[in-house]
Structure formats: C-alpha cells, structure tokens
Design a protein that fits this description.
Blueprint: H1 10-18, H2 20-26, H3 29-39, E1 42-45, H4 59-70, E2 74-77, H5 88-94, E3 97-98
Parallel strand pairs: 1-2, 2-3
Helix pairs in contact: 1-2, 3-4
Amino acid sequence: MFGIADGTATELIRGITVNHAEEKRKNNFIKFWHGLIKNGDAILVCNFDKNGVKNYVGSNTLMEIGFTHVNDKKIFLLNPIPEEVSYADEIKAMTDFVINGDLSKIA
C-alpha cells in the first residue's frame, strides 16, 4: 500500500505522528479504504484488546464497518462485540458474523 508495514514510507510515518488527521486528508486514506471495501466481498474486523477495552473497535473501524454495511458486504468480527463502547448497538446492528477467533467460519 504505502510502505507503512515494511517501514519504507518514512515521510508518511513521520507525518502521521505529527498530524494524523492532515495525513489522512492529504493521502485520501478514508476514501482509499472506502474504495477497497466497495470492491471487496467482506471485511474482517480484528478487534483485539486495546487501551484497556476488551475487543476494541475504534472510530476508523466503526466508519469502515458502516461503509461495508451500506455497500451490502459481509462483516466478520474476529472477537465478540465490545460492550464497553457507547456505539456497541451500532456494531451489533451492522455485524453479520462474530467468529470468535475461528477463521474457518469465514465463507
């Protein structure tokens, strides 16, 4: 994608640490992910524990779940829906399958 995973996009990585919102805007990250979702069949949300919240789903991921839902694509959650977030009901309303860590349940 942008060389983030392998560490080669050093300017982008630096920009994210300085002003994440500006880098998202400048690089059209939100539209980029929306396009991938529209052209795919489904998403797998890897909702691991984060910041003391079990099975955390953050704001970007919530938007991606929404994009997937309105484009009639399948939504798989790796782990159960986080109950500690104020938007748990929205996640419940849009999620098709909670696979409880069992990747063989993706079809």
